[in-house]
Amino acid sequence: MKEHSISMQKEGFGVNVLIVGHRCYRCHHAWVPRDISEVPEICPKCKSPYWKKPKTLFKKVEKKNGK
Predict the structure, then answer these.
(1) pLDDT attached to residue 20
(2) For 51, which of 3, 5, 24, 31 could close a Cys bridge (C-beta 3.0–4.6 Å)?
(3) Within 10 Å of residue 34's Cβ, how many Cβ atoms?
């Protein structure tokens, strides 16, 4: 008898699944909330209230040597 490798494969392996969650811009922590309809106020790891706003980098302004 010939065994077919196709019939022996289990279904469900190698399938990509999209999980909806959140990611903190500050500490890059990712989590899945208990209630997806509510937006969290703070990141559960770093406790930052600015978890959904990207960091803004400011350039230092050079001081002029004026007397």
Answers:
(1) 87
(2) 24
(3) 7
Give the span between the Cα atoms of 15 and 17, in whole angstroms: 6
Residues 6+ apart with CB under 8 A from 61: none
Over residues 18-63, the pLDDT tens digits come to: 888 999 999 999 999 998 888 999 999 999 999 999 988 888 777 7
Burial of 26 (0-12, 13-18, 19+ CB in 10 A): middle
Contacts 24+ apart (CB under 8 A), 45-49: 48/24
Half-sphere exposure at residue 9, Cβ-oriented, CA atoms within 13 angstroms: 7
